[in-house]
Design a protein that fits this description.
single chain; 469 residues; alpha/beta; Metallo-beta-lactamase, Chain A; Oxidized Rhodanese, domain 1; 3 domains; six-stranded mixed beta sheet; 16 helices; 23 strands; 29% helix; globular; EC 3.-.-.-; RibonucZ/Hydroxyglut_hydro; sulfur dioxygenase activity
Length: 469
């Protein structure tokens, strides 16, 4: 009997798959994530032995789990499109059209470049069927979107855009409408623009609704995918290198020692240390360790840790509940951070009882912000949302500073001026304001509720061209 399990990893919006045949007892995993226990658990659930691990391409947004899964289960080989990419670890080379028989089903590799030069998709066939009923599209075709061609730098972008056009218009649009697509990402991933919420679709539905499949010619398509692409996340180039070189094998989560407050403080002063406070923005605002960056305990913690800190940083964690340390650490390692200096034993309560100094970050309601902004022209409002969010409307008089760019861009701001940050809900704004505070800005405030609260209160909105709505 054919078995398929899809694994959606929140935070990085990544989709991986286990497919198997219970009669032959064999299975394959497509694009495994970093923490691979889930695939072993699912294979045992169905009485399967994983024999094949397929990589559709060199990933940019998460650390591949292929080598860890291969090491953990000991019965599988890794399969790579190595003719079109320079992998620095061992794996079986897969060619366009190559077939893999699993008993109840077959997988046939299709070279679908554009997102990357080496990208492979895998068509899924029933036993002895002439036509596929589904295709694992990796990062080439998404629900309502397609893979971006600009992750390898300007020199490669135009060529990859042309290849992506051929992949979409010659390969995918040549498939039958009934064929199901199983993509490598869902909504929230920056590997494609405006990916839809559904986790699967059909060729027919995408043919009718996917804007990427409706351009009349290559020129207009190329302009759209290059000029209108969202910003490339800062950690993507780093993770490309990690995944091409071959990620370290992770048999278990890295050791993370519990540090009492005074030892935590001492370690925090060592070179290369970053303090990440995962508590809520209001808890962080009420009191935090000097220099800490507030990235709250939500699934998107994975992506924002990757965005904000280079991989050579050693992380010190502050959590609300020590029972959550392993779960939070699991979110962090998915985007490449494996070096942990420790976590604060006893949390901020222990820090306060120890008599150690702490700082606060003022939280401002949208109502207070509205009054203060009207009365104080010197207050600088920073909108730290994405460019597309900014263009759809913002607080009148605000300046746009996308939080993902603030690691470098805030260097030119006046540290003695008064600032307030907002995003959609306050989560990203707290990242931005805590970063500014850690960099020595003297007067920074955060807005809980942010844009959602501002619009709910009925306050004025300014469009990107400066016309109030």
């Amino acid at each position: 009997m054919f078995v398929m399990e899809s694994i959606f990893t929140h935070g990085i919006a990544q989709l991986s798959y286990l497919v198997g045949d219970t009669d032959t007892g064999v299975a394959a995993v497509i694009d495994p994530r970093t923490d691979v226990e889930v695939y072993e658990q699912l294979s045992r659930k169905h009485g399967l032995s994983i024999t094949h691990i397929f990589e559709t391409h060199i990933h940019a947004d998460f650390v591949s789990g292929s080598r860890s899964l291969e090491s953990r289960i000991g019965t599988a080989n890794i399969y790579l499109s190595s003719e079109h990419a320079d992998y620095h670890f061992s794996g079986e080379s897969v060619k366009d059209g190559q077939s893999f028989d699993f008993g109840a089903f077959r997988l046939i590799a299709k070279h679908t470049p554009g997102h990357t030069p080496e990208h492979l998709s895998y068509e899924l066939y029933e036993r002895d069927a002439e036509n596929p009923w589904a295709v694992f599209t990796g990062d080439s075709l998404f629900v309502g979107s397609a893979g971006r061609p600009d992750l390898l730098g300007d020199k490669e972008t135009e060529l990859l855009a042309d290849e992506l056009y051929n992949t979409l218009y010659e390969y995918y649009l040549g498939l039958d409408d009934f064929i199901t697509i199983y993509p490598g990402h869902g909504a929230g991933s920056a590997c494609g623009a405006d990916i839809g919420d559904r986790l699967q679709s059909t060729i027919g539905y995408e043919r009718r609704t996917n804007h990427f499949l409706k351009f009349p010619d290559l020129k207009s398509f190329r302009q759209f995918v290059i000029d209108d692409a969202p910003p490339v996340p800062a950690h993507y180039p780093e993770l490309k290198i990690v995944n091409a070189d071959g990620p370290d094998i992770m048999d278990r989560l890295p050791t993370i020692p519990a540090l009492p407050p005074k030892e935590f403080r001492q370690v925090s002063r060592e070179p290369g240390i970053t303090i990440v406070d995962t508590r809520s923005m209001l808890a962080f605002g009420g009191g935090h360790v000097a220099g800490a960056i507030n990235i709250g305990d939500r699934p998107e913690l994975s992506a924002w840790i990757g965005q904000m800190f280079s991989l050579d940083q050693r992380l010190l964690l502050i959590v609300e509940d020590e029972a959550d340390v392993d779960r939070i650490q699991r979110l962090i390692v998915r985007t490449g951070h494996f070096s942990f200096a420790g976590f604060l034993s006893g949390g901020m309560k222990a820090w306060e009882i120890s008599g150690l100094p702490f700082e606060t970050l003022p939280q401002v309601s949208v109502h207070d912000l509205h009054e203060q902004h009207s009365a104080n022209n010197e207050l600088i409002i920073l909108d730290v949302r994405s460019p597309s969010e900014w263009e759809s409307g913002h607080i009148p008089g605000a300046q746009h500073y996308f939080v993902a760019d603030m690691r470098e861009r805030i260097n030119g701001l006046d540290k003695d001026a008064s600032y307030v940050t907002y995003c959609a809900s306050g989560y990203r704004a707290s990242i931005a304001s805590s970063l500014m505070k850690a960099r020595g800005f003297s007067d920074v405030r955060n807005v809980p509720g942010s844009w959602s609260a501002w619009t709910a209160a009925g306050y004025a909105v300014e469009q990107s061209e400066g016309v109030e709505a």
